[in-house]
Amino acid sequence: MKLTLTSTANETPTIRTLTFRDASGGALPGYAAGAHVTFDLGVLGTRSYSLVGWHGDASAPEAYTFGIQCEAGGQGGSKAMHALSVGDEVEATAPKNDFALNTAAPALLIAGGIGITPLITMAGQLKSEGRAFQIHYTARSRPIAAFLDRLNDSFGDSFHAHFDDEAMFDLARVIAGRSDGAHLYVCGPRGMIEAARETAEAAGMAPDEIHFELFATPTRREGDTAFEVEINTGQVFTIPPDKTIIEVLEAEGLDLTYDCQRGDCGICRTTVISGVPDHRDVVLSADEKMGGHVMQICVGRARSERLVLDISPRQDRRTAPATPRQAAPAAPALPAQITRATMGRYTGNPQAVRALFNGGQVHRDVYIDREIFDLEMKHLWSNTWIFVGHDSQTPNKGDYITTQVGNQPVIMVRHTDGEVYVLYNRCPHKGTKIAIDREGNTGKFFRCPYHAWSFKTDGCLLAIPLRRGYDGTTLDDTPNGQGLTPVGAVKNYRGFVFARLAPEGIGFEDFFGGSLSSFDNMVDRSPEGRLQVAGPPLRYINNCNWKMLVENQTDTCHPMVAHESSAGTAVRLYEEMGNPEPRPPAMEIIAPFMSPYEFMEGMGIRTWPNGHGHTGVNMSIHSDYSAIPGYFEAMSKTYGADGAKAILDENRHNTVYFPSIMIKGPIQQLRNFIPLGPDKTLIESWIYRLVGAPNELLARTAMYNRMINASTSMVGHDDAEMYERAQEGLHTQGLDWVDLNRLYSGAETYDEERVENGTTERQMRNQFDAWVKFMTVSMEPAAPVEAAQ
Amino acid sequence: MSATPDQIIDFLYAEARMLDEALYADWLDLWLPDGHYWMPLDFKQTDPHLVTSFLYEDFFMLKLRIERLNGARTFSQKPKSRCLHVLNRPFIDDADDAAGRYKTVTAMHYLETRLDDQMLLGVTATHDLAVVDGAIRIANKRVDLLNCDAAFPNIQLLP
Ligand code: FES
Ligand SMILES: [Fe+2]
After folding, report:
1. Angle, to 10 degrees, between the axis of helix A714-729 and the axis of helix B59-69?
2. Per-residue pLDDT for A358 more than 70?
3. Partner residue opposite A711 with nearest CB, options B64, B67, B152
4. Phi/psi of residue A37, each to 5°?
5. Whether residue A725 is found in the same domain as residue A652
6. Minimum CA distance residue for ligand 1 atom 3
7. Phi/psi at A634 (5° precision)
8. CA-CA 20 to 30 A from A19: which of A109, A416, A583, B138?
9. Looking at the structure, do residues A400 and A448 belong to the same domain, yes or no?
10. Out of B53, B60, B156, whose CB is closest to A706?
């Protein structure tokens, strides 16, 4: 039928009463409280509004009255209604009622905002029948609540208004205070209905005593018919009137990405190849809707018989920006003025940085200077490959961990393509960290907790609520519009994930070269060639520079001295007990730290280019562990007896992968050095299970970890004491240089693999050689400072 | 052999005092020889063997730890650390008077200091106690740190 608008009245700045009569002057169909009329708004689709009748049911109404709130962020339906002028005609359906009053029971009516409209009619009806009822009206504040005076006048003591900015609405109390046998009627936003329903059920109300109407864009409508959806594989699915596209496709086993299922998050945005979509979402812009090339398949339907949608069995291309993910562009060069203002002695001065290492000694500034530390983060830790995590920490799609690469917070996450991605942990909107728990599963996408920008697990932007607010802005032209920024490069080497922050730079294999043999040996020790992380890591803080820890890994002249207190005492105690067999575990793990200098010399040290190296070339303190029954057999099965023997005869002690980690192949331990400041380092000590090997090996590894590396470890106490004393000592001005001359010939180069005496400090020198290289490779000499005026 | 609640609670306070006063020889005498002092790394950890713990010390390790604290070349104990246990009243969660076995749970503040640094830890100690030859002894002890997942500096004495 056709209705003519006959009068309007503004109730509040956004709520307007519209009154319609039959366009041909005929009689209007009657309605009962709770009924609504659906208007046809052409390309905008249809909209339903509740009938407002202050006296309740109307069998032969002269007019239909509606209270319509203009939704600024809506799809345009309410705007179109407000735009009508008196005399305009609109197409509408006869009243329909999905929210009828129970004919006998007392009633408790609760309205949220504009949800008051059907409840006005209900209250009018209840009043006219003389039945008991209470009507509660909640709104954010008094000025935006429509019909207040008239509600007060009409319903007197039965009417109660609540304003969020005045006092909290106590839903539980209102429901608890209902009259015996009362039915509950709620109309308002989804959150309110859900809360009311939950509270009512908790208060013992039966489901058939609870009635509600969602005051939101309806997503299913009367008159919806079935249609077909064809996807990229050519498969065709029939979508019945009572099911959404997502529901049907998912039931058919397709893997889809979506969130809200009510058309407002934007995540399920899908390209329409052909057919005419019937949009029912609130995220697409009017242009996008008219264009007809995209739709939200959680609510949208079809105006044509078939839609052909760009959906593949795995949905990876769908909403991705057309451009492939690229690392963030390098930061624009600072204007010269700013460079100079922030420049200290070393910034933009590669010459001064090089001068800190003279071959046999290193200047104390590398350990204590804040500017050097910041430059290390910017250059050394960005240009080199830094350990992120082990891929068994994120076995399933959507699994993630949060950690740091240098001082940069990152997320490592398993994407839907099965690969591990490393992304900066920073929302491109306002900077909010996307995840802060150390591990978790995010499903198919990350959703920022601040404004719900969402991102696929490869970082690509998925959706922004109310996206059209960015139409015509520069957002899309900036990296912020692309999504979460990935690090420069990622490599998963036999389960160990490394990242290079810099978009350009040395490749993974070039950087690590022959040193990867230590990873190979550690992983090969699994009869299945696979490691698995075992529990959380030890985490400890040492108040010293990160390089002190890294240097200590190949410092073979300290154990018999610094660890005499723990290892020496263990040996003495054991002798006092008469050397009982089997040895206590502590003797196997801790006592070798007392090995004499000759042993350390014979152990040997190997160095590789770019700062990598290891102790224990010929044998090591890990060589004398007791055999574990069944292990060699399992290894032989995979590698043959000779192969197994070759793997297990390798007893490398500590391998440093400069600058970030050290691993111990024979006991599957990895120490991650995370720099927090020039004088503060966080260490995480991880252990791994050799998949397919007996548990006893893992038990020994766990024992080693706690005995040697825990904050409660005696051996750890010895080391931390030395680092921290050195950090403090280096602040003295009496002497500027730290010595690394042990077994230094004066003519060393580091561009080839070398094996030397196990007490050499060559590996420390090797590290500083690499340090200089990667500190200066990206350091532009600054423009000369202009002479002071 | 059984023990009264008062005897058990007195025992737990006395044990803490021995640690605070560094009476380690006396403290070690409280232990049954096959007991373990366990400090898990993970919240609600159940397995001391196949994942890392802070401590899972047998008698040899405890003895080594105590000897080391007094060693002439124990540089991390020059100067020495001191500690203080501030106990809540212990709960006796299980009591088997016939067998003389008791399980207690004691919440406490643990303070440890050395030079200018002092650390405060919230800890929950769970004791398995056994009455042997008329004396209460420690069969096993588990100490859970409230902030077990935090990064720590050295913790040198026994919480
Ligand atoms: S800060 Fe992340 S969505 Fe606004
Ligand atoms: Fe050491």
Report:
1. 30
2. yes
3. B152
4. -120, 140
5. yes
6. A451
7. -65, -40
8. A109
9. yes
10. B53
So what's the ipTM on this one?
0.97
pLDDT tens sequence across A306-354: 999 999 875 443 333 334 344 444 444 434 333 333 457 999 999 999 9
Q: Is residue A364 part of a domain?
A: yes
Best mutation target among A439, A664, A682, A706 (most B Cβ atoms within 10 Å) is A706
Q: Domain B5-145, what architecture? A: Roll (3.10)
Cβ–ligand 1 distance for A430 under 6 Å, the answer yes
Q: What is the pTM of this model?
A: 0.75
Do A110 and A251 have their domain in common?
A: no
Cα–Cα distance, A172 to A701 (Å, whole number): 55
Final residue of a structural domain among A449, A471, A505: A505
Give the nearest chain A residue to B64 (CA atoms): A570
* pLDDT score at A104: 85
Q: Give the domain extent around A459.
A: 386-505
CB proximity list for B137: less than 8 A, separation 6 or greater: B30, B31, B32, B129, B130, B131
Domain annotation covers residue A781: yes
Taking the C-alpha atoms of residue A52 and residue A556, their distance in angstroms, rounded to an integer, is: 87
Would you kindly state where each structural domain of chain B is located, as residue ranges?
5-145
Averaged pLDDT for residues A592-605: 95
Regarding whether A666 and A563 lie in a shared domain, the answer is yes
- The residue written with tokens 């120490």 in the block is A671
Nearest by Cα to A323 from A86, A538, A486: A486
3 state SS for A755-786: EECCCCCHHHHHHHHHHHHHHHCCCCCCCCCC
CATH number of the domain to which A530 belongs: 3.90.380.10
Q: What band does A623 get if pLDDT is binned at 50, 70 and 90?
A: confident
Number of structural domains found in chain A: 5
**Residues, beta carbon < 5 Å, ion ligand 2:** A 719
Assign residue A446 the CATH number of its domain.
2.102.10.10
